[in-house]
Amino acid sequence: MDRRETETEFGTTIVGLVADGGVVLASDRRASAGGMVSSKRAKKVFEVGDRAGLAFTGAVSGAQALVSRLDNEVRLYELRRDRRMPVDALASLAGNVMRGERFGVQHLLGGVDADGPRLYGFDAGGAALEHAFAADGSGGPTAYGLLEAEYAEGMPLDAARSLAARAVAAACERDLASGNGLRVATFTGEGTDVAVYDDPAVVAS
């Protein structure tokens, strides 16, 4: 994989946090191809089912295919069993799908079920690893610095949204492949809220 391919696939910032009663997934909105900004409105956080979602770094087409596959499996599971798919089962499904096909993405998966909020990251082999907070993409190391310093277990959702926004904003200050605003999704037992902002400071304040 040459430098251009690496930058095209993984130039972004995504973060996820487990909070009191929910999970927050956030990303910047810039898509890059080598040294060029190819989009300022890229969607990097997707809903999966009614109370879960996926934030991705990598190929947009691969992310769309993965999300479509997972969403269809969730709907089928719930139709057959008349109950919601647990988040750990969804994470296992995502890992199995990743091992079977090459999507060209790295992602964070979060959601809420009867056992509470859960957040998972995935290694290169598709193994699901549970986290309280996580970051990925080219801006991930910068975002991790703020998350490590300020994350607190059981923090309120509003505080988690603010921290996610500040982590993405910090990454955008240092990472050329991250920028152009914020997309933030909040998953709770009541459902999903997704919002887009031109300036992360609106949420970070």
Automatic annotation (TrEMBL):
Activity modulation comment: The formation of the proteasomal ATPase PAN-20S proteasome complex, via the docking of the C-termini of PAN into the intersubunit pockets in the alpha-rings, triggers opening of the gate for substrate entry. Interconversion between the open-gate and close-gate conformations leads to a dynamic regulation of the 20S proteasome proteolysis activity.
Enzyme class name: hydrolase
GO cellular component: cytoplasm; proteasome core complex, beta-subunit complex
InterPro entries: Ntn_hydrolases_N, Pept_T1A_Psome_bsu_arc, Pept_T1A_subB, Proteasome_sua/b, Proteasome_suB-type
Any one GO molecular-function label of the UniProt entry: threonine-type endopeptidase activity
One Gene Ontology term from the biological process aspect of the record: proteasomal protein catabolic process
Active site per UniProt: T12 (nucleophile)
Reactions catalysed: Cleavage of peptide bonds with very broad specificity
Pro-peptide positions on chain: 1-11
SUPFAM superfamilies found in the cross-reference section: N-terminal nucleophile aminohydrolases (Ntn hydrolases)
Enzyme Commission number(s) of this protein: 3.4.25.1
Places the protein is found: Cytoplasm
Keyword terms of this UniProt record: Autocatalytic cleavage, Cytoplasm, Hydrolase, Protease, Proteasome, Threonine protease, Zymogen
PANTHER family tied to this protein: ATP-DEPENDENT PROTEASE SUBUNIT HSLV, METALLOPROTEASE TLDD
Function recorded in the entry: Component of the proteasome core, a large protease complex with broad specificity involved in protein degradation.
Subunit structure: The 20S proteasome core is composed of 14 alpha and 14 beta subunits that assemble into four stacked heptameric rings, resulting in a barrel-shaped structure. The two inner rings, each composed of seven catalytic beta subunits, are sandwiched by two outer rings, each composed of seven alpha subunits. The catalytic chamber with the active sites is on the inside of the barrel. Has a gated structure, the ends of the cylinder being occluded by the N-termini of the alpha-subunits. Is capped at one or both ends by the proteasome regulatory ATPase, PAN.
UniProt record similarity statement: Belongs to the peptidase T1B family.
Protein name: Proteasome subunit beta
Organism encoding this protein: Candidatus Halobonum tyrrellensis G22
Gene this chain is encoded by: psmB
